[in-house]
Amino acid sequence: MDRTQISFETQRLGIRSCKLSDADTLSSLMTAQISQWVAHWPFPQSPQQAQANITSYLETASAGLGFPAVICKKPTGQIIGWHMLQLRQVPKNSADLSYWIGEDYQRQGFAIELVRAMITFAFESWDIEQMIAGAQLENAASISMLRKLGMQQSHQARVWAPVRTRYETCVFFSLHKAMWRSVS
Prior knowledge:
Layout (H helix, E strand, L loop, with lengths): L6 E3 L3 E5 L5 H7 L2 H4 L11 H16 L3 E8 L4 E10 L6 E8 L8 H16 L4 E7 L3 H9 L3 E10 L4 E11 H7 L1
Helix pairs in contact: 1-3
């Protein structure tokens, strides 16, 4: 199932499949502050690098294995961040959740609104039983948000961060569909 043409809304956000034409905006939103917490979005980042990232993510979406999206502020449609939902091989019927919000749009509740909507979307629209998200140990804001959403810490693991060409320790959280129904 091709997942390159998906869109939906929350109260303040539009979430839509990314396009190659989003590369300029996404590269301009990427800062050192954001890049330090993400594995695949370097800083500085040229529009060509952003296009390469997007191309790879669109291939995943075309194969039905993911949903790469831009986050837009309503009603203007201004892009304020990025999201990726990617199906996992193991455990079966699970997906990884990743996201970032541009610095000018942080601390306004957009991230939690986005992640809450993406979890609901994934559980209702895909055959997913478990959502998984990770954060670096020092990323207190993301860890706090994942806990607020009812995600439970499951484990720590070393993760390859290609933008920094090193392994980094991350803490992982999971949420089962049955638990989401009770907290959402």
